[in-house]
User: Which sequence fits this backbone?
């Protein structure tokens, strides 16, 4: 009997992924083997490698792919460099202030990517904040910061830094204070201690963070399009151009498969590389890290300065664009991206609150995020129990499948779904969108909930059982309260991911069903008014209030503790 | 067999029923709009959304008690979606640009225009292809006149060294992009077929200050002094110049301005045929057309409007002026699109 519990618990999530994820991915694979594009032809055709041959034999495609890889590597490195001081700062923050400090990460996460990218534009544009400030001290303006690789790297780092920080924070805060005391008693200064103790111990977090940031950065297109101004090309932009503008689904599909292979290879290389750096995880003998004696004074002298500067930079990078969004929401300019403050106005707020601009899209986003979040948790919770408590054969294969959506570009799911729309017409748009959003949330929900289930104290359950509590009572009185932080964390992360999703959603929205971020993105490519900033500012305020309230009930920093 | 009068009457009655039946079915297919029907319209956001809401949606809702939903944004996404949903569209009315609309009719995604739309008769001939043309919106060179040593009078003037490094070239093969590329061909003695010539000439203009992918972005670039010249719709640029930047000039090159047109297209398979036709009809009505002309300087596609004097010099009016706009061989362009896009990406934008 027990043998079957694991597979049964694992079945719902597997089934969901097969229908909503494996199907479009299969379509993408099949499309990539089409010899030529035919938007109305059958999905199954005689396979051909024509698209792949074209990609491999064309220096342009190879150039864009390598440009994307380099760009993503740069973003990963910058995110790691800026993420460490921030994560360290959060981990050392007194518990009392930690909830508030955590909002530094959570608020940017809740603000949608489009608006954050617009914030970066306001920062870098010729009349933007940076040039205004440097102008005060007489430095001539740098007119060409926008539409460069640098601008794209800054924007992508802004967008994905929170994920790196969360991954690092997890490890850094788990380091026992006793380890620090030991290091200190052996004469290590804080800077030396960080390099020799905290850094090695946080390598698993760095591995997780690097993989996530690289994968997300290499498949992003919103920020790259807005900040790169078509002078910077990424593979996702090519995919979108081929799929949408040129209606060349086979080439788009082949490019997404190429992206997928690159992403998976990076994840594999990263895992192998970092595992080599951490022989102690496998119980192998390892030499402690040490810093040459002559270097120690330098580290001691420069460490505090450098770490503070980096901390300041990361805080500014995360918060300044949001601040600019606030300012812009009162700015009397005709367009969302017009930099420079021209005059105070409340008209954008009037439009949000009285004219009802964005109200429909906002409610759809909220409903969709709530529904997706609940569905994802309902699917992930049994899966988490299956993984943590009821091992069965083939489990690791299944886990790899469950986490696959994380490593595959969302844009691929979009391309596949666009084609599947012809078959899936009977599915109501809301359910269709929800199905996809659940896929986006699932890898996070499964990871978070599995660690929560593993952390449950079995002895409490045994005690309850010995006192006569049956399975149902134990579940509601012991297990569920124990899982509360994990559920809460999964709930918030799920809501955020769904609420901000643009990539796949923009392929699938219909007139009756347009989400807020998609609507803002669609307008930003045409003509966007600062109304977008007004509603974002309102959302940011709501987030701050919600976090303050939630922080009273649950320790927010526990949200991401694995 | 002799036909008796009774039999003959029966035959006629039978034939009558038989003949009437198809008509009856056709009528049924174009069902009368009911209260609460929902019309889905894909249109550009911003000012256009406001105008159609005021001058098309309002009277339509008043008359039929229907509901109108919008998908806003550029044409790319809505075209891709309409193609994905061919025959079972979620859109009823789709606004496309000139080349997309003609291709969409060929691909069976949208319908040919018909006189079922009352105002069809008033349309200029060039506005009766690929759907119902709702606005002429020519593309031309727009530039900062302070930076010009003399006014621009030819497309060739873009090659004057004074513009080197200051041009924001339009992105890809959209309406502005195609206009810029095809007018390059015309200006240098070629036709649509001479794409090699086009690429070679445009490459001479590099490096570009930027690649602009929307007029909002271009105007921002003018504001921020990132570029001095581009190819853009004259209409929007005039609004921009009048409201924000009086230094911007809209050129009237001797080779002509490039014809571009916004087209309202009714999807094949729409369940709201009548409502969709009424929608288009209202869009072609005088109040709506005048609002477009007044607010966006879109030139009307119908020939029976009374245009206020102050607007006349800013619009393309009358058969002769319309016929002077340079139209291209869209079949050739659409057929060459993948090849040209590839060369654009590699040699012009890259």
Assistant:
């Amino acid at each position: 009997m027990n043998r079957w519990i694991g597979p049964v618990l694992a079945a719902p999530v597997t089934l969901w992924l097969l229908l909503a994820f494996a199907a479009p991915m299969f379509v993408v694979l099949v499309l990539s083997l089409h010899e030529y594009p035919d938007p109305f032809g059958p999905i199954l055709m005689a396979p051909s490698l024509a698209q792949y041959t074209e990609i491999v034999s064309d220096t342009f495609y190879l150039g864009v792919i390598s440009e994307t890889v380099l760009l993503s590597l740069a973003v990963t490195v910058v995110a790691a460099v800026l993420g460490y001081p921030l994560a360290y700062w959060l981990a050392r923050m007194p518990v009392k202030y930690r909830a508030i400090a955590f909002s530094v990460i959570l608020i940017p996460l809740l603000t949608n990517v489009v608006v954050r990218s617009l914030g970066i534009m306001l920062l870098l544009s010729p009349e933007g904040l940076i040039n205004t400030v440097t102008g005060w001290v007489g430095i001539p303006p740098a007119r060409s910061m926008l539409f460069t690789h640098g601008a794209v790297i800054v924007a992508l780092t802004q967008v994905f830094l929170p994920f790196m920080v969360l991954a690092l924070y997890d490890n850094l805060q788990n380091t026992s204070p006793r380890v620090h005391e030991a290091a200190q008693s052996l004469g290590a200064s804080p800077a030396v201690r960080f390099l020799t103790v905290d850094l090695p111990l946080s390598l698993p977090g760095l591995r997780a963070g690097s993989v996530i940031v690289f994968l997300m950065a290499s498949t992003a297109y919103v920020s790259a399009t807005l900040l790169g101004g078509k002078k910077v090309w990424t593979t996702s932009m090519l995919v979108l151009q081929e799929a949408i503008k040129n209606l060349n689904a086979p080439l788009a599909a082949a490019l997404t498969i190429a992206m997928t292979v690159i992403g998976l290879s990076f994840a594999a290389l990263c895992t192998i590389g970092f595992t080599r750096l951490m022989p102690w995880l496998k119980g192998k003998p390892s030499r402690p890290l040490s810093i040459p004696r002559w270097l120690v004074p330098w580290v001691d002298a420069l460490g505090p300065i450098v770490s503070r500067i980096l901390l300041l930079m990361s805080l500014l990078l995360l918060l300044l664009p949001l601040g600019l969004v606030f300012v812009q929401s009162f700015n009397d300019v005709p367009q969302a991206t017009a930099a420079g403050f021209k005059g105070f106005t409340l008209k954008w707020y009037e439009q949000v609150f009285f004219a009802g601009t964005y109200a429909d899209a906002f409610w759809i986003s909220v409903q969709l995020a709530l529904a997706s979040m609940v569905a994802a948790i309902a699917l992930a919770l049994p899966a988490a129990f299956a993984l943590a408590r009821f091992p069965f054969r083939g489990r690791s294969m299944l886990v790899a499948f469950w986490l696959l959506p994380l490593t595959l570009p969302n844009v691929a799911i979009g391309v596949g779904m666009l084609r599947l729309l012809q078959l899936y017409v009977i599915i109501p748009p809301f359910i269709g969108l929800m199905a996809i959003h659940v896929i986006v949330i699932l890898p996070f929900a499964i990871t978070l909930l599995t660690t929560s289930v593993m952390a449950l104290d079995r002895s409490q359950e045994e005690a309850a059982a010995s006192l006569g509590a049956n399975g149902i009572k134990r579940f509601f009185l012991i297990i569920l309260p124990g899982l509360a932080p994990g559920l809460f964390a999964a709930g918030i992360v799920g809501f955020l991911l769904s609420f901000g999703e643009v990539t796949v959603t923009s392929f699938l929205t219909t007139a009756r069903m347009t989400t807020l971020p998609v609507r803002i993105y669609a307008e930003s490519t045409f003509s966007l008014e600062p109304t977008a900033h007004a509603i974002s500012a309102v959302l940011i305020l709501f987030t701050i209030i919600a976090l303050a309230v939630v922080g009273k009930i649950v320790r927010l920093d526990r949200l991401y503790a694995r | 067999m002799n036909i008796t009068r009774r039999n003959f009457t029966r035959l006629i009655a039978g034939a009558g029923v038989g003949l009437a039946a198809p008509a009856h079915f056709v009528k049924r297919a174009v069902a009368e709009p009911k209260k609460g029907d929902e019309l889905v319209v894909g249109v550009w956001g911003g000012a256009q959304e406001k105008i159609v809401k005021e001058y098309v949606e309002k009277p339509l809702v008043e008359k039929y008690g229907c509901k109108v939903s919008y998908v806003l944004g550029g044409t790319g996404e809505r075209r891709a979606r309409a193609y994905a949903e061919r025959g079972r569209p979620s859109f009823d009315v789709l606004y496309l640009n000139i080349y997309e609309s003609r291709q969409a009719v060929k691909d069976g995604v949208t319908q040919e225009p018909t006189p079922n739309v009352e105002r069809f008769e008033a349309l200029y001939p060039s506005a009766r292809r690929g759907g119902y043309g709702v606005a002429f919106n020519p593309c031309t060179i727009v530039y900062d006149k302070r930076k010009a040593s003399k006014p621009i009078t030819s497309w060739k003037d873009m090659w004057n060294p004074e513009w080197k490094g200051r041009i924001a070239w339009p992105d890809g093969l959209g309406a502005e992009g195609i206009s810029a590329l095809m007018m390059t061909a015309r200006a240098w003695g070629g036709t649509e077929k001479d794409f090699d010539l086009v690429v070679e000439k445009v490459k001479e203009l590099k490096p570009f200050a930027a690649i602009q992918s929307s007029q909002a972005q271009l105007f921002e670039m003018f504001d921020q002094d990132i570029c001095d010249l581009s190819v853009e719709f004259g209409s929007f640029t005039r609004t921009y110049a009048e409201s924000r930047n009086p230094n911007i000039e809209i050129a009237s090159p001797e080779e002509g301005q490039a014809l571009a047109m916004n087209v309202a297209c009714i999807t094949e398979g729409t369940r709201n045929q009548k409502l969709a036709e009424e929608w288009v009809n209202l869009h072609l009505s005088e109040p709506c057309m005048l609002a477009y002309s007044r607010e966006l300087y879109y030139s009307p596609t119908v020939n029976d409007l009374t245009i206020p004097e102050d607007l006349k010099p800013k619009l393309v009016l009358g058969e002769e002026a319309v016929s002077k706009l340079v139209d291209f061989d869209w079949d050739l362009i659409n057929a060459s699109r993948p090849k040209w896009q590839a060369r654009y990406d590699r040699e012009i934008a890259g």
Chain B touches chain A through 54 residues (CB under 8 Å). Confidence is low (pLDDT under 50) at residues 11-28 of chain B. The domain at 139-258+329-349 of chain B is CATH 3.40.190.10 (D-Maltodextrin-Binding Protein; domain 2).
